[in-house]
User: Which sequence fits this backbone?
């Protein structure tokens, strides 16, 4: 089988490095081009990237010359974007116009009216928005987004509850890992023996993006869900894995065991299609009193699941629980790749 | 002036060590006796305590022989208790019966119907319950409790809002420091690059104790407040200082600036009486976007204040904010000492 | 092929858990029995072990009943020992007397005159001591030891230099990970934002054991090497991976590139025999200026190699360098298993 | 008494902030000017500095306008320099030429032939070099340097031994705190659960500077000591406090108790002159088996002492021990201020 050649934009950063490891031996995709910022262009990837992961860069990729993030320099029909927020908006449009399908981890287009913001287990039907973009761009290209790292795991936990029982409100406090801020990211003096109760822009993403994920496709638009979400976002001294405490209010309060069953039984299209990166269980409920924990659970299901625990009554809303998810796998690069796998499996990549 | 001789029960532990440092040069109290568990009895305090604080044990105290935690061996009329939960209940009663006033940091008696559970800025009138105990014990002794470390800072932040506007609900997530679990407490392998989303018994304390602090003295009983509180308690890798995110719902929603004014202007009896350990401001509101932080704020006001920040609208309840407090000062030993200072200033210590 | 049934003594501890993961799918050995201390006996292993590793306990083993560490209760002909120091000495002898071959990570017998203390790449010939024990015990059983976690990696780095050039002295400072102290081990308050410059008994092991590893088999005894080693051992706030700075003095000072070549080219019997757990390269020299680092290198070669870097002139001795090794894999459980694999490959297991 | 007006160059950085706190209430000096890099110039200091210390910026200083680091803009006769390495060299000369006395924490001039590199307890006579500079600059200005943070504490421990017994060699491994790298400095992802065995340029400073501190003033030059020092420098996950393991070789090996006595009894000119920032004991020897530790000892003697422990025989050199010192107090800003206090007490400030 001929693999589809793909490019990685922002390949030297932390999410870019995760793309490398997820795509290096992918059954459907083959890394053909690596692109990064000007000070990396022309260098070998192995020299340009300050590598952060506990395995070697694959030799073939280490030798690849870094290209500029320019739609004329980068030819691949499928592009994974880990571009920085400030340039992603304009650049991703250019790529789509020249015909590339852009699976993006960047935030600027997530809430765009004609941009599918997709978690394959939750709202794969939103991919239908692609045709709106294709018309607008007069091209076969379009932009497909995944959510914010904290949002994705929140939505994976909320979706089974919303589908089965109807959700009205969720109040979430996050304890987010350092890799979520990229590299070099958070200064060590800001986090050793400290907690920072503020992450710029994060709370708004966590409050707004779920309304689109849980929204309804209506012709060529998404009707946002009217679920009300409030977020407190904090940075703590952990490397990988976002922990979130969540309280929820239902349309009609279900039984506690029925809520657990909803977590246990949740499956979606990626499981049905057996997408390469799909977790066997997208939501894993653990019954131990002190789980999930980062040291034990963040890598479960290849880092592609949301691990949930401690479901119990909430004195203010209906129930409360805690969830944990790997922020650079299912919360970033893994989400972007899974979205592309969904496109492939549905024949969208030609 | 003759100082009042005091004893410390559980003197070798982490809270006991804080008592030492707070009382070593106290203007009203003088440490006369140190008591601890059997394996310390008879040793010099300096040898018995595995000292954890960044200053030397005062020489006089280092040389003091450790006594058993026995009301017959310990003579002081005022006793500070940092006894372990499993023995504090019965022992503190014995001390009260023999005539000692027990200012306790232990949890067993906190919710007792005739036990004042007091934050001097919030509910000093609850001290009136002492006479109920005195009758029961037929003694001048009684037990006076402070709250749980997470609860105290929560209540210090809620009280000015409740007094001024009326509060109905609060939803809180804590990120608690390691010193809250005592020494040796949490294993290092359980917390480096980890978060533990569970602290045994903690959530119940945080949900129940505020109802008593904010309750009304009615003759010889406290009518519990009907405020509804829900807590998610987490352990993170910090040494001192509990961070809490809080969302609140009011009887009638006030203006945001009025809420800040309530924090800014909050004062109580300790400030009026100029108690030695009283903070100038029991609640400090900071307007920077990323405060409070442990590294900057936990020692503000000698560790005796609750530092608050980031007040903003909440999409689920009315407002949300973050608070930080030192857990072994105002959250434990400092609270116990301040309660005793209140007794002294009101002439209860004879 | 019939696998050899093996038992794990001290199966619930941190090293015991590593044995589980290394042996769960081993090509030659099959876990038949799990033994631990009295408070675990009779429980299912899954309930008895406070599991610390980021993957699930294999289901078959989680269901196995824990046996007492008693040579009459445990039948397997090959026994892996992670027994605590205070009981390992006597118990391991009992196991050897009843005919078991004991591959031990415990320290009491390491310096025993008739006990082989082996790193398979360094001194596999020392296995000849087994026959001395077999005579003494009048049994086919014997005890085989691996070294201390810090020692093993030090010796792996020193051996290629000693073999090729002759070494006279080594001065080493270790920065040791928390897992080296077991679980619960080091209290979190002792290590967050701290360094502890003392590990009880450790320096003596690091100074003495290499003299045996690098010693010469002479008939039925080992002549200890007269290499002089001085160690400073420290505990730092890392989970896994011991870092060591080393300065060495040679018989005759070689060229720097020749020293690097010795590291690069070092191979031994495990590589020749292709033992299942053998690293392709037991010593890996990295030329980057800031390597090795735990986050990047501790899991290289399945955690079975010693990673070395920064070789340069030393103003006091001849050369200096830094090394890193995984302390619970090649530094403990991995060493014990590799020793057993060597026995198997040499036909000693029957 | 009229205080001497002083300026701080590089006032917004981490060392600059320490200058602020050490000088805010100084009995002899008064902060008159604060200077920093272009992007701070013209701002209020409180807005320009990203404050890192656990107490408020003094209100008077928070309101001060930041000046450029220009000898024409800054008028004070005494200047404290925390300038970055790349600009300190040229700028400090300009300040000296215009007549300012520059007490500098920067490294470029430390090894300069006519620059006194001084620890007041160790080599106060080296101040005599000032007159060489004054002649060269034809000005009353000159540059006075303190050493590198790791070096200062090493030299404070070596000096009493060298003075009393004569030292030939020292082999040191450092475990350095994050504040030593400034702010933002080390990325959190580079140090959580990691050790970095490399700090650019550090080892050379630790090996060379002691030769000057321990050298002899001979007329207008310093004869470097021929002590041989070898350093391994590492970064670990601590906020403040450098730990160093040290092995030493003497001219003639003294008795162990005599070495301890040398540490215990060491005093110098700052103690004799009772300089405001002088520690009562510049070297503190602790006899506990596991001291010094950062959490207990780094703030001893106001952070101005070197804390030593664990003196014992070394199998390679004569003795070994461990030392700890606060890196931004005695290791940086405190050293710079103490040097200026020495000048003042000796009448050099007019």
Assistant:
């Amino acid at each position: 089988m001929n693999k589809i050649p793909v490019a990685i934009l922002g390949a030297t950063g932390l999410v870019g490095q995760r793309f490398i490891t997820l795509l290096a031996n992918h059954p459907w995709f083959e890394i053909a081009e690596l692109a990064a910022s000007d000070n990396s262009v022309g260098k070998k990837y192995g020299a340009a990237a300050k590598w952060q992961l506990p395995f070697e860069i694959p030799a073939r990729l280490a030798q690849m010359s870094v290209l500029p993030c320019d739609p004329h320099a980068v030819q691949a029909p499928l592009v994974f974007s880990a571009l920085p927020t400030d340039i992603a908006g304009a650049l991703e449009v250019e790529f789509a116009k020249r015909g590339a399908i852009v699976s993006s981890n960047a935030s600027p287009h997530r809430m765009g009216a004609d941009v599918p913001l997709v978690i394959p287990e939750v709202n794969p039907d939103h991919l239908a928005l692609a045709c709106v973009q294709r018309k607008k761009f007069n091209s076969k290209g379009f932009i497909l987004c995944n959510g914010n790292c904290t949002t994705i795991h929140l939505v994976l936990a909320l979706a089974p509850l919303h589908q089965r029982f109807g959700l009205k409100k969720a109040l979430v406090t996050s304890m987010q890992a350092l890799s979520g801020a990229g590299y070099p990211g958070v200064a060590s003096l800001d986090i050793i023996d400290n907690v920072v109760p503020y992450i710029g822009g994060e709370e708004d993403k966590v409050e707004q993006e779920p309304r689109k994920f849980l929204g309804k496709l209506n012709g060529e638009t998404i009707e946002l869900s009217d679920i009300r979400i409030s977020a407190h976002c904090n940075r703590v001294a952990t490397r990988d894995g976002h922990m979130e405490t969540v309280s929820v209010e239902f349309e009609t309060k279900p039984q506690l065991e029925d809520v657990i069953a909803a977590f246990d039984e949740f499956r979606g299209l990626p499981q049905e299609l057996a997408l390469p990166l799909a977790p066997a269980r997208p939501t894993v409920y653990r019954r131990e009193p002190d789980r999930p924990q980062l040291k034990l659970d963040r890598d479960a299901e290849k880092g592609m699941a949301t691990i949930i625990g401690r479901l119990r009554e909430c004195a203010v809303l209906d129930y409360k629980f805690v969830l944990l998810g790997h922020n650079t796998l299912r919360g970033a690069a893994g989400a972007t790749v899974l979205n592309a796998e969904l496109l492939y499996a549905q024949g969208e990549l030609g």
Observations:
- Chain B touches chain A through 43 residues (CB under 8 Å).
- Chain B has two domains: 4-148+333-345, 149-326.
- The mean pLDDT of chain B is 97.
- Residues 283 and 306 of chain B are 5 Å apart (CA to CA).
